[in-house]
Amino acid sequence: MSVTDTRKDLENLTFTLIADFEAPVERVWRLWADPRRLERWWGPPAFPATVKEHDLTPGGDVAYFMTGAEGEQYHGWWRITSVEPPTSLEFVDGFADAEGKPDEDRPTTVIRVRLTARDGGTRMEMHSTFDSLEQMEQLIDMGMAEGMEQAVGQMDALLAA
Amino acid sequence: MVVRELDDEAVDLLFHALADATRRDILRRSVRGELSVSRLAEAYPMSFAAVQKHVAVLERAGLVMKERRGREQLVRTAPDALSRARRALDLLEAAWRGRVDRMTRLLAEDPAPEDDDPPRGRDT
C-alpha cells in the first residue's frame, strides 16, 4: 500500500499525506514534471486531465482541465512558487474559467510536495493549506468526482473478490 | 488535531449520495445557500416527491440538513463548521488516495528512467 499516513487538521485547515513508492526519486519526480505522465494521474479515470501548459519554473504556470462523462470541463491552473528538481515543488492550485483563465474569485490551495529517498524507494510528503472553510467547500466539486470514482473502484474490488 | 476515519457505513452512504448527478447538483446549490425543496423541484424535470427522495439520501449521508420554516422545507449544508471541514477534508483525502493509487500504477508500468524524454527543468 502506498499511502502511509494522512493527517487532517480541522483547525488550521491543512491536509498532509505521506506516501511511499517503490521507485527512485527521479521517477516519482517525473510523474509531476512530465505533463503526459501528470495527466494520467491528476484526474480520476472518469474525469481525465488534459495538461495544456506546463512550465515547472518559479513563476511558471501549469494549465489543465478535467473532462467528465457528459463532456463537462473543469479548468484549473497552478502557479509555481518554488521548484527544486527532483525533490521539491510548491505551487498555488486554483480554478479557471471555461477559457482556462484563472478565476481570481474562487478558492486557491497552496500545495507543497517533497520527495526524499528512503529505503531504496521514495517518500512523498504532500501538504495542502486552505485559507478558509468556504474555500475548502468550493473544492468539494472536484472531490466529489473523485469520491464517485473511489466508489466505483470499491465496487470493482468487491466484484473481483 | 487528528480526526477519526469515517467508518465503512458512513463512507457507503457518502458515495451512494454522491453517485447521482441530480444529488451532486442539489449539494452544489445548497453549498451556495439554503433553498427550499419546492424551489429545487422547479429546477429539475422530476416530481416534488422524487426531489424529496434525493434530499433524503443527502441528509442520511450527513451532507445536508432539512429544516421546516412555515410551509417551506429548507435544505442547507450541515451548519457545524467542524463537521463541514471534516467532510471537505474526507473528500480531499479520497481524491489524494486515488491520485497516489494511480501514481503507484504508473510507476509499476513506466519504463526505466532515462530511456525517453528527460524531465523538465534539468539539463541532459
Structure, described:
The complex is a heterodimer of chains A (161) and B (124). Chain A has 161 residues and is of the alpha+beta class. Chain A has one domain (3-160): START domain (Alpha-D-Glucose-1,6-Bisphosphate, Chain A, domain 4), CATH 3.30.530. Chain A is built from four helices and eight strands; from the N terminus they run ββααββββββαα. Chain A has helices at 25-33, 35-38, 133-138, 140-160; strands at residues 3-9, 14-21, 49-54, 61-67, 73-84, 88-96, 108-118, 121-130. In chain A, a hairpin with a 5-residue loop joins strand 4 and strand 5. The radius of gyration of chain A is 16 Å and the shape is globular. Chain B is mainly α and 124 residues long. Chain B has a single domain, classed as Winged helix-like DNA-binding domain superfamily/Winged helix DNA-binding domain (Arc Repressor Mutant, subunit A, Orthogonal Bundle). Chain B contains five helices and three strands, in the order ααβααββα. Chain B has helices at residues 8-18, 21-32, 37-43, 48-60, 81-109, and strands at residues 35-36, 64-69, 72-77. Chain B has a three-stranded antiparallel sheet. The longest helix of chain B is centred in the last third of the chain and has 29 residues, at 81-109. Chain B is elongated. Mean pLDDT of chain B is 75; it is low at 1-6 and 120-124. Chain A: InterPro entries: ASHA1/2-like_C, START-like_dom_sf. Chain A: Residues 23-159 form the Activator of Hsp90 ATPase homologue 1/2-like C-terminal domain. Chain A: This is SRPBCC domain-containing protein. Chain A: Belongs to the AHA1 family. Chain A: It comes from Actinocorallia aurantiaca. Chain B: Residues 3-96 form the HTH arsR-type domain.
Brief summary of the model shown:
The complex is a heterodimer of chains A (161) and B (124). With 161 residues, chain A is of the alpha+beta class. Chain A contains four helices and eight strands; from the N terminus they run ββααββββββαα.
